[in-house]
Amino acid sequence: MSTRRFRLLALVCLAALMAATLRHAQAQDGSRYDNPQLGVAFDLPAGWQVEATESGLLAAAPDDLAAAREGVTPQGLVLRIIFGTFSQLGITDAGQLPDLLARLAGPVASVPPAQPAAWGNALSGYQTEITLERDGLTTRVALLAVAGGRVAIVRGMAPTPVWQAGAGAQLDALARSLEFSLPERDRDLVNTVNAHDGGVMWHYQAPPPADGRPVVLGGLTYDMFDVMYLAAGPGGVLTLNMTNGSHISYMGPWGEADYGDVAIGPDTRLYLANAAGTDSAITVVDRAGNFVRVWGRRGDGEGEFAPGMPRTIAVTQQGDVWAVSEGHATGPRNRLYRFDAVGNLLLSVDLDTINPNLTGIRIDYNNSTGALYLTGAAGAINVIDADGEPLVVSLAEEVLQGLTPLDIAIAPDDSIILALAAPGLEGYGFAEFSTGGRLLDLFGFPYDEERGGEFLHGEYLRPAGLVVGPTGIVYATETNPVTGYSQVQAFSFRGDGNLPLAREALAGDAADAFAVDPAAGGGEISYGQTVRGALNNRYPVHRYTFEAAAGDRVRITMRDASGQGQLDPLVRLLGRDQRELAVNDDVGSLAPEGFSQRDAVLEFALSGPGTYTIEATRFGGRGEYILTLEKVEG
């Protein structure tokens, strides 16, 4: 653990202890303590008190609570819980939790190895117990991945004789009663995240090929030459130009085939998950389509695959091949296999021991950390190490309630991308999560099945494959089983795309403020005048010009007309030579009455007479704005 990470942790702890505002609770003959702001509840022993801050809490009998605050040895058990984020603790992957725990345990020469721990409903975490001989204290500390993409540091501490006489057992009972939930501020996050501020870069769409080839698009990958390879079910492999989505060719199939996923290895060969055939569950070809090898018989023996399996595959930087086989009749029902590049079985994992709720499993490998990620129709997000040991299970479960993950991809910045299905819900096509499972963004428009026909830009029905490119662009695939149309879309969760989105195309220029004609925004403006406009991915900036005299001081305000944070305005002032003179994104805490902190306010003294330009644009979001130009007197 780096010094920087340890300092970050210390700051988190210090903030919890030094916060000015404490919330105080005392149990009467034992009760249930519940703190919705922190998202934690537990059984509070009779006579105990709790002091809570915005980032944690202390709980103990009153005298022990006072001792803990003053930094002296308590007479009984003290419970401390501190909440932080993965980034605050310098964690880039859940696999770092055990190492971090050793640093947190205490100032001792040797810390016992971290052991997996499930405290209350926190199913992922690690704990260790140490005795501080010099201080006469015993402490047990746990590091838990909990709801909201957070980490909870939970520590129980008591004098060693008291610990042995019953305080340790008391902590066990407290640990079993812990219930972590989304903090109150995040409980409606999935419904408030702006799902429509992304953009489609390119969109490939095609009906079934004229040669009668049956195409059902699934997983996809790419090579160093910007060629994208897409598993096409019985149709082999479709190749596209990654930069613009133009069609290149079809390759294969190679024998009996139903390719559901494809990964590229360090040997630059393509590894295909083949759900058909008797002995070709894994099919390997080169990038030109030349057959290399197959392995994977049907059956219930070690290394064998159930009918219709595998549907997902991942290849590590070392060339190991991960695949999943679900639905075996005998032996482990659901299995995770790791092979070498020529098909030798290296590892077989009973997935029910990882998470028995996992079904319809999809996997992806994180090149930067060596961890394997698993998701499915149930079971949320799960992370395992190279030995098949669980690092974290059911990550983001509280956010994914009622949503069905269809595929998973790990971005270059380690964020987690999911393709989701949620009938009747808008905006749940694709979701971005932090490494800790916090929801960051959403994107997508549901396909209108009543309208039928082709997919529009940004629309999804039931995404089947995901990959994230080196620049963070997400690529998604699917095939409409009714129309036979297949699509591949390249999109960004935030920022403008190259294509108008579905909502804009359907609304038409005159019908919807999200599709304002550029002529309806911009033009001339005078002092004292207020104008309105709307910004979106198709029209992200409007330009207004005005005449000014030497020495004029101007004030330009731009605010989100909705008042709901749909648009994050940004205003820019350009000089007579079109060079930027001033810019403002967020006015911040000095926001005038009627403005939000994200609205823009700009004041500037002009040096000479002439024509100046205001650019009304945005930092993010989309929607209507209100812009006013004023001359400041005096």
Question: What are the salient characteristics of this protein?
Answer:
Jelly Rolls, five-stranded mixed sheet, eight-stranded antiparallel sheet, 10% helix, mainly beta, Neuraminidase, Protein Transport Mog1p, Chain A, flat, 634 residues
Q: Give me the count of strands.
A: 46
Q: Could you tell me how far the N terminus lies from the C terminus, measured between alpha carbons in angstroms?
A: 57 Å
Structural category: mainly beta
- SS strand fraction: 35-45%
Q: What best-fitting shape do the alpha-carbon axes yield?
A: flat
Rg, nearest Å = 29 Å
Mean pLDDT: 85
Main sheet specs: 8 strands, antiparallel
What assembly state would you assign to the polypeptide chains in this entry?
single chain
Q: What is the strand arrangement across the widest sheet?
A: 1-4-5-6-10-9-8-7
> What ranges have pLDDT less than 50 throughout 5 or more consecutive residues?
1-23, 507-519
What is the CATH top level name of the largest domain? Mainly Beta
